[in-house]
Protein 1
Amino acid sequence: MPGDSVATRRRILDAAIAEFARHGIAGARVDRIAAASGSNKALIYKYFGNKDQLFDAVFDTIVVQTMNDVPIDADDLPGYAVRLWDWYRSRPELLRLNQWDQLERGGLGTQAEVARRASSDKRAEIGAGQQRGAVDAALPAATVLDLILSICRTDLETPDPATQRTVIETAVRRIVTPRTR
Amino acid sequence: MPGDSVATRRRILDAAIAEFARHGIAGARVDRIAAASGSNKALIYKYFGNKDQLFDAVFDTIVVQTMNDVPIDADDLPGYAVRLWDWYRSRPELLRLNQWDQLERGGLGTQAEVARRASSDKRAEIGAGQQRGAVDAALPAATVLDLILSICRTDLETPDPATQRTVIETAVRRIVTPRTR
């Protein structure tokens, strides 16, 4: 039944997120994903293709989740950064998936179509913010996004969550606030 | 002879840097390091201990190299950041070693003694800069260092090296410049 198929895909993706986060792409094993999702390798290959394509599907899935749960807001990039920071802290496996992607694929967007489009949308949103004067326009919009994402993925050496949020908020605010002349 | 032993250690470390950068800790193979350095596994174990301890030695080595070639300067953190950015671009394997360290060990300083001390020295230098008013004191010194390192390791989506340096310099300057009241 279609309902079953959707649920099975979801279970496979959840298991794949955990497996790739722990072991990376080269180290991930499809038979472990099959076992953890109560599925089988043939079904995984049928639904998602090979292991690399399964990683693409995982990457697209987490990008969509992140966009839905933490939408970008060029009128309040410091607030966006704090929400993204909190989101990553609540889902540390997403940080690991990003790092595996960088190490094993050379960075976001080499393969995953949805991820590439999401980056492009976020850049456009920041660019529009620069045009209407909500975001300082000294730096290219794409690099402002890169800086914010990098800051939100920093492992801050302070144990206090309130201090961590202040650091993230302050750093991003200082970078993006339009200069007065 | 001692001279031979120093040269052999150096060759092993260079081969280990390349092997760990490519494959990570779990994926690295000591026999490949032996072959690439014209040495043998027994000698590697004798000099460095097991594979994890060899990674420690690699990490300590690159930290010392980085400190020597790019000394921190709290009176000019934006300039320091640009020099560090250039350094990482000229040695991309160092960025990969940092990422493997984060993925497989949970981040800098869990093992390597020299690396831990180097971080502590850099934090102290930034803290002293805050005390004498050269660095804004709103954020804890340790987190200022974390932000700078993170920014210098960002994969910026702009191909032009001059623009990249401007982005790094501007971002760090805005974060660390003392606010006027």
Protein 2
Amino acid sequence: MTAHAATLEVRTRGKGTTEITDDVARVVAGSGVRTGIATIFLQHTSASLVIYENADPSARVDLHAYFERLVPENDPAWVHTLEGPDDTTSHLRMALTRTSETIPVQGGRLALGTWQGLFVFEHRRAPHTRRVVVSVVGVT
Amino acid sequence: MTAHAATLEVRTRGKGTTEITDDVARVVAGSGVRTGIATIFLQHTSASLVIYENADPSARVDLHAYFERLVPENDPAWVHTLEGPDDTTSHLRMALTRTSETIPVQGGRLALGTWQGLFVFEHRRAPHTRRVVVSVVGVT
Amino acid sequence: MTAHAATLEVRTRGKGTTEITDDVARVVAGSGVRTGIATIFLQHTSASLVIYENADPSARVDLHAYFERLVPENDPAWVHTLEGPDDTTSHLRMALTRTSETIPVQGGRLALGTWQGLFVFEHRRAPHTRRVVVSVVGVT
């Protein structure tokens, strides 16, 4: 049994999704774990993780537009807006998606389905560098 | 320490929830792990996992109806509809719920609360066979 | 490698968020794990877990108000209301947030970001005692 951890830095371009599947897969391959789990954890409260279809980019067009509508920036009810109209909405969109994702490792590889990709979902308007911790635990 | 993995095939009947608690419990029992964790991971982007009350079926009536309303199929804004009106909405409903769930194992059993059941939440209209990977890591 | 588990009892004051970051950190410190993961699991279906900004309390004012609006209690469509107007809405708000969260452990500590706190999100009007299982797996 072994446990291995690495931190990825992911540069976002402002609002939207950035795929990190290959980066996480490299950490898993480097860990030597054959059977176990990989936990991916985003260390931020104004961005989140989401597993989404990674074949047809139009799927993510709807994802981005839907969250603009579900948690609109121009809502007069918000009180936590010190850092701008995308402040409180970033936290709410994060809470509605995910901060951690745990993916089984089988045969030394992430056991993702055919159409699944892992994305950092940036909720702030400005580009950010986001830290993602990948922790792999299992049998070598 | 040991790590064990198994894949379940879950037949859904189209939209709605299918309980898999007992199937996951069997994998945990067969793993020999006494203390540790079980990660349940759904390998699809148009269905999801949800832990929900499993005592009174009326609870899930509201769950199903609520998601129809929260992410409606007849919305003219959707662009990702190649596979039908339940295409993009399936992905969005998945993103709002869960793809992985990690449950502690204590005394060789899943440490679920009294009213908690684990369900596959099918978001497509047609029945599907869904693959669920269960990975158990811990001390025997 | 080791696996360690503990159950926390968290007293909520009715609807709202109660921070448990320090309680979880104590379990991690006591486990002796240096590198691995901590899974936090809430054994209830009418409360949930959420990682949220823990610096400015106004952030959580918006969180609480948003969920009142997203899943309103006074909706005539609900059928699962035997235990009151906060019955089915508690389950739905739980499904939209999280039941388990898995956080990497690095250097013997939870690898949380600077502004991240872990909270129990109570969805019932009345105060409750909520059980949270913390399971730590990794290398000592």
